[in-house]
């Protein structure tokens, strides 16, 4: 389902298997637990890289699991929406730079998971970003919209992301300011690029607490919505 | 003054006549009523396109009507009245259960530009027509919901400053560069309207639930919605 490895300064979180890596309550719990593990083992210079195997980074919540409850479907949707919030919070709070290396498609909550990272790299040749909610007829959770508003600057880009039903390919995603880079023609290429970036950030030997506090200060509205407070206590390198 | 027509899935709201289409309390009331009509007749796949005839989309509030109040206080009251009465129009557009497109036939200034910006998509002409926030030149302060709308829709500080604090008359190409409008590729009024109709038909074909669309739209602008007294409601039956 998902694994956490350490490679020098880099924590590598991988959504394993060739499936859609849909977020089922169990997956969500695993991801949260691995993020907590990375946090507890973090030191100066730690960096997180999150990636997946196969065609999908993640295709969002496990809607099939919701549907299998019949009348309980909406209840299960709410459960997943609610349980996913702490994952976003954990990423925003993580005391190290975070990089999402998109091996493939990222949709709905899968895309929100990616966007919760400081840097997002995707493939040029394959993989799309897709907020499917408007097509399916699902309202967007308030903290999803807050994340989009926090991370994506232009009104037009936000509309293209949430209100167009478009499947955005790499080049367009870069132009809209949603991802940092879509320069690589393979999943390996994306991962290598993120490892390079990760190593150059790790070399800064930043204090992770300070990094996280500065990051959270950029997104006060989002932090409020996911129940995070920015703490401003730090010992400076003055 | 203004008309609402239905063409298939498309609602076409037109500010008629060749004048400046200034917003007088009567105009504002008419627009509001037509928006309510479109809302009540909306179905899956509905789209609103708003346009105007002549050289102007709209040149803003009817300041001449304000001045005929005869005193400074009277004029200020009338202006205040117009500012307050436009708020529900902006709210109605944000709340409209269908995608909205402003097809700018010509100049859009002040409250007229705010009306345009309240739409999901804005198309303007390449050859004619400017966007102009005149307030800084006239010496009028900005209503809070105008600034909130600009902050909600326009991403960069530089673009917001160019729009509100420069007194510039921004032409199509620059408006696209600043991220204020989606497109300024047309050299005629017909061209802009046709492009809006094409986009409208494409969006209509998605057969989206208007309630869900409006709810997602409003969730993008929580501060603006707060100022306008709008809440995002999230009742929907998804196609799971």
CATH topology of chain A: 2-enoyl-CoA Hydratase, Chain A, domain 1
How many domains would you count in the coordinates of chain A? 1
Rg of chain A, Å, rounded: 17 Å
Low-confidence stretches of chain A: none
Number of helices of chain B: 11
Query: What's the pLDDT, averaged over the residues of chain A?
Result: 94
Order of helices and strands of chain B: EEHEEHHEEHEEHHHEHEHHH
Strand order of the largest sheet of chain B: 1-2-3-5-7-10
The helix-and-strand class of chain B reads: alpha/beta
Give the arrangement of secondary structure elements.
The complex is a heterodimer of chains A (238) and B (240).
Chain A: E1 2-7, E2 10-15, H1 25-40, E3 47-52, E4 56-58, H2 63-67, H3 73-93, E5 98-101, E6 105-107, H4 109-115, E7 119-123, E8 129-130, H5 133-136, H6 142-151, H7 155-162, E9 167-168, H8 170-175, E10 181-184, H9 187-202, H10 208-218, H11 220-225
Parallel strand pairs in A: 2-3, 3-5, 4-6, 5-7, 6-8, 7-10
Antiparallel strand pairs in A: 1-2, 8-9
Helix pairs in contact in A: 1-3
Chain B: E1 2-7, E2 10-15, H1 25-40, E3 47-52, E4 56-58, H2 63-67, H3 72-95, E5 100-103, E6 107-109, H4 111-117, E7 121-125, E8 130-132, H5 135-138, H6 144-153, H7 157-164, E9 169-171, H8 172-177, E10 183-186, H9 189-204, H10 210-219, H11 222-228
Parallel strand pairs in B: 2-3, 3-5, 4-6, 5-7, 6-8, 7-10
Antiparallel strand pairs in B: 1-2, 8-9
Helix pairs in contact in B: 1-3, 6-11
EC number (chain A): 5.3.3.8
Protein name (chain A): Delta(3)-Delta(2)-enoyl-CoA isomerase
Keywords (chain A): Fatty acid metabolism, Isomerase, Lipid metabolism
Tell me about this structure.
The complex is a heterodimer of chains A (238) and B (240). Chain A has one domain: 2-enoyl-CoA Hydratase, Chain A, domain 1. Chain A has a six-stranded mixed beta sheet with strand order 1-2-3-5-7-10, with helices on both faces. Chain A has 238 residues and is an alpha/beta fold. Chain A is built from eleven helices and ten strands. Chain A is 46% helix and 17% strand. Chain B has 240 residues and is α/β, with parallel strands linked by helices. In chain B, the strands form two sheets. In chain B, strands 1-2-3-5-7-10 form a six-stranded mixed beta sheet, sandwiched between helices. In chain B, strand 1 and strand 2 (10-15) form a beta hairpin. The mean pLDDT of chain B is 94. The interface between A and B is medium-sized, with 30 and 28 residues. Chain B: It catalyses: a (3Z)-enoyl-CoA = a 4-saturated (2E)-enoyl-CoA; a (3E)-enoyl-CoA = a 4-saturated (2E)-enoyl-CoA. Chain B: Belongs to the enoyl-CoA hydratase/isomerase family. Chain B: Keywords: Fatty acid metabolism, Isomerase, Lipid metabolism. Chain B: InterPro entries: Enoyl-CoA_hydra/iso. Chain B: Its EC number is 5.3.3.8.
